[in-house]
Amino acid sequence: MISSNKFSSNDRLLMAAIDLIAEKGYNGVSTREIAAAAGLSEKTLFRNFGSKQNLLETAFERFHYGETMKNLFNEKLVWDLETDLLLISRTYHDIMNRNRKMIQISLKDGAKLPGFREKTSKHPQQLKEVLTNYFKAMSEKGKLIETNSEMQALSFIWMNYGAFMNNLDADTTFPTVSLEEFILESVKIFARALTP
Amino acid sequence: MISSNKFSSNDRLLMAAIDLIAEKGYNGVSTREIAAAAGLSEKTLFRNFGSKQNLLETAFERFHYGETMKNLFNEKLVWDLETDLLLISRTYHDIMNRNRKMIQISLKDGAKLPGFREKTSKHPQQLKEVLTNYFKAMSEKGKLIETNSEMQALSFIWMNYGAFMNNLDADTTFPTVSLEEFILESVKIFARALTP
DNA sequence: TATGACTGTCAGTACTTACTGACATCATAT
DNA sequence: ATATGATGTCAGTAAGTACTGACAGTCATA
Questions:
Q1: What's the average model confidence in pLDDT over A160-183?
Q2: I need a surface site. Which of A52, B58, B104, B125 has the fewest CB within 10 A?
Q3: Which one of B148, B171, B181 has the shortest CB-CB distance to A185?
């Protein structure tokens, strides 16, 4: 049960909803279960949120981690391919892990939840733009081979997306050792492939 | 509705179940809906399959394509890195696309269905082994740099997994990009990175 | 002490769902 | 012509669901 003294009733309900729906799907969990997991009565749930659907939508608004990747990059890039790709990869996995449960919900019930998919795919799209532009800029500096920047960016993103997806249901809240290994090696691969 | 004259009643029920459950999830679709989509009565569904759960399990046994990658590779590899990676990539996407709906079901309701995950979403251990061994053999032939073959194989697999996952749902994150384009460019990247 | 915000209990509604039994229909094969 | 097998109709059960209303308890603050 979600600890009672630290959070408000509403937050406890929202967190319980996220946890359970991410695990069992929207139709796989009842409002009674959610209320019980929050240590509250079903009545309170409906009094405060009106409907199950609204509970989930509110939960998404409240807990979706929406910080943009754009700012991070513009400030921290040092224009060394391997260093920058490492930063990008780590930042990506960090954000994806924060939104892990939202992404699980989006995968299971995205069709039922208007706007869910768009928001969970916001980061990947931003990332693609940023990374494509980064590759182009590096290319102009002569630090990168000149080819298809967009497709290279996509390949890098999808590689990391695949890695993330593979660990999605492992339920490991903290980054695993193998993920770090993967990041190091995969960045090496791309750095070697794209260096002139 | 699934065409009536070409398939048996049971097959029509199984196909309807796969279609609807892949779209809406196990708990999101009723037996009445499934029967209607198959052009049959709900009674027939229960007469022939006993339960909704058994219907889905039977559907999986009937329509899940087993992994035949091992054989393909051993027969067709020509020990040219780019050529072989192209074959591997195309074979992978071919098999994944065949199992597309099973994978969707596995993602949405894998927790409820024993054995489902292992057979679909979790990457064919087979492919990883085959690719790792391929990299090692290429390395011994002097056609590949000597580094971490296992991580390189994982990176390549996850890159393709990410690409596949991105196209899984009708609502694609990067709709303008064709799969074939991606395969060509991504294989080039890896070929360049791993060539001595 | 009294007020108001918040929560719980309980009984209940209207609906859906998985699943069943009794009986009828219909085509095909012998 | 009749037996067989697969299917449909219909009525129904037991359980679960989201959600509500009436009423009472708790607790901090005015």
A1: 82
A2: B125
A3: B148
Asked if residue B172 has pLDDT above 70, the reply is: no
Record the tokens describing residue A49, joined without a space. 């949120």
d(Cα A107, Cα A86) in Å, to the nearest integer? 27
Q: State which fold the B9-63 domain adopts.
A: Arc Repressor Mutant, subunit A (1.10.10)
Provide the shortest C-alpha distance from residue B119 to chain A (in Å).
14
Could you tell me what percent of chain B has a pLDDT over 90? Answer: 68
Computed over its alpha carbons, how large is the radius of gyration of chain A?
A: 20
3-state secondary structure (DSSP) of residue B77: coil
Residues of A with CB under 8 A from a CB of B: 23-25, 27-28, 107-112, 117, 121, 124-125, 128, 147-148, 150-152, 154-155, 157-163, 165-166, 169, 181-182, 185-186, 188-190, 192-194
Q: Which residues make up the interface with nucleic strand D when CB must lie under 7 A?
A: A 29-33, 42-43, 46, 50-53; B 8-10, 39-41, 43-44, 47-48
Is the pLDDT reported for residue A84 higher than 70?
A: yes
Domain covering A69-194 assigned CATH 3.90.1200 in the classification:
no
The ranges assigned to domains in chain B are 9-63, 69-194
**Out of A23, A24, A163, closest to residue B158 by CB:** A163
Q: What pLDDT is attached to residue A67? A: 73
The full length of chain B comes to 196
Distances, alpha carbon A55 to alpha carbons A44, A135, A177, B41, B177, in Å = 12, 42, 35, 36, 36
pLDDT digits (tens, 9 = 90+) for B116-167: 777 776 666 788 888 999 999 999 999 999 889 999 999 999 999 999 999 8
